[in-house]
Every structure is written in structure tokens, then in C-alpha cells.
Amino acid sequence: MSPTAELRRTVAELHRELTRYELVTWTAGNVSARVPGHDLMVIKPSGVSYDELGPHAMVVTDLHGTLKEGELAPSSDTAAHAYVYRHMPEVGGVVHTHSPYATAWAARGEPIPCVLTMIADEFGGDIPVGPFALIGDDSIGKGIVDTLSTSRSKAVLMRNHGPFTVGETAVKAVKAAVLLEDVARTVHFALQLGKPDVIDQQHVDRLYERYQNVYGQ
Fold first, then answer.
1. What is the pLDDT of residue 216?
2. pTM for the structure as a whole
3. Which residue of 10, 101, 183, 189 is 20 to 30 Å from 175, comparing CA positions?
4. In degrees, to the nearest 5, what angle opens at C-alpha 128 toward C-alphas 154 and 198?
């Protein structure tokens, strides 16, 4: 079996999670996964309906975005994903959405403050804002990498664009995208009621350490 066959199936199935949690509309957004042991990634094709995203539709590119397997053109965000994989070897999955609440924070160019234990658990502090960058080359990828290199966050709000999340696997990157939208919505609601309290850094560190290393099975 091709080393990409099972991963193509996994990435196709993960796109259903984006629609399930209402993180995307129409054909926007994408999930990619690094192919273990190879300088390759699996990613969604450009402009294809989510209803048509079976394993056969997924494409495989190298880590410079050159098509290696598949008949469709890769996602327009391929260069950004590829840049992340080239410069962050610990990352095995990347997700981009236009989920409404997280994207609203990106439109304001404002980090999401760490005012919830879930933010501390999953993101390790404030969720940062990345620079404005135009799609089509490495600019978005560079902004993602530069921003996350100084943060424990698995998410970055690219200014005037939307969120990107990363993870050790594509599954973990999708989880981060789901949780990001949830906390972006909740903090928005909290701000309508007043000024929420920021969690002390010592507590953020303890929460993050526990969730990352103790929580779960």
C-alpha cells in the first residue's frame, strides 16, 4: 500500500469535522497532514465541495507545494502549509478555517486573552495574532512560523484573514481549531458583560503542564 493511502483517507475524514463544527463555509478552509518519513504532505484540493472530498480527491505534494499524487490542483493555501512543515519539524498537521468568532478576532488584529482554563490548557496562554500577508506564496507560512516560534499556542490568528492551527498530528490540529472557535466565542460573550479576569501566569503554566502531560488516557 502507498504510504499516503491511509493518510489520504484520514485527511478526507477530518474535513468532515470542519463542517460538523461549522468552522467553514462553501469550499473555504483545509486540513493537511505530513507523510511520516517522507518530505510529502496530503492536502485538500482547491475549490472542491466538501461533499466531494473522499480519499480519491486528496492530493499529495512535496514540502514546496509541487504536486506528486492526484489529478486536482492543490489548495491555494498549500504554500503556507508547506512552509510550516519545512520550518517546524515537530508539526504533523495544519488546519486553516474561517470560523466566524476566531476570524472576527483576526479582523480586529487582537489576541484572544487567556481568561479561560481551556485556553491555558490547550494554548498555553494568549492566542497570538500573526501579520497581514497575501495568499499565494510563503508569506502566510512565514507569518505563522514567526508567530508560533515565540508562543506555546497551537493557533495563530492571521491578521485580516483567519485562524491557522497546528498539531503533532492532523487530528490534534483539527481539535485545536475546534477548541479555538469555542473559546473565541466564549471570550466574545464575556466581553459583552464586562472585562474578564486574565489568569495569573503561574496558574496558566500549571494548567498547561497538567493538560499536556497528565490529562486523558
1. 66
2. 0.97
3. 189
4. 100
d(C-alpha 32, C-alpha 199), whole Å? 33
Closest CA to 44 of 16, 22, 21, 85: 16
Element (H, E) at 8: helix 5-20
3-state DSSP call for residue 209?
Answer: helix
Residues 139-189: pLDDT tens digits? Answer: 999 999 999 999 999 999 999 999 999 999 999 999 999 999 999 999 999
- The pLDDT tens digits for 50-84 are 999 999 999 999 999 999 999 999 999 999 999 99
Residue 160 backbone dihedrals phi, psi, to 5 degrees: 60, 15
- Alpha-carbon span 115 to 195, nearest angstrom: 10
Q: CA dihedral in degrees (152, 155, 159, 160; nearest 10)? A: -170
How far is Cα 126 from Cα 32, in angstroms, rounded to an integer?
25
Four-point Cα dihedral 22, 25, 26, 27, nearest 10: -90
Q: Kindly state the helix (H) or strand (E) to which residue 141 belongs, with its residue range.
A: helix 139-148
In this prediction, residues 183-202 reach a mean pLDDT of 98
Residues in the chain: 217
Q: Which residues are catalytic?
A: 121, 215
The pLDDT value given to residue 58 = 98
Place of cell 497528565: 214
Task: Report the mean per-residue pLDDT for the chain.
Answer: 97
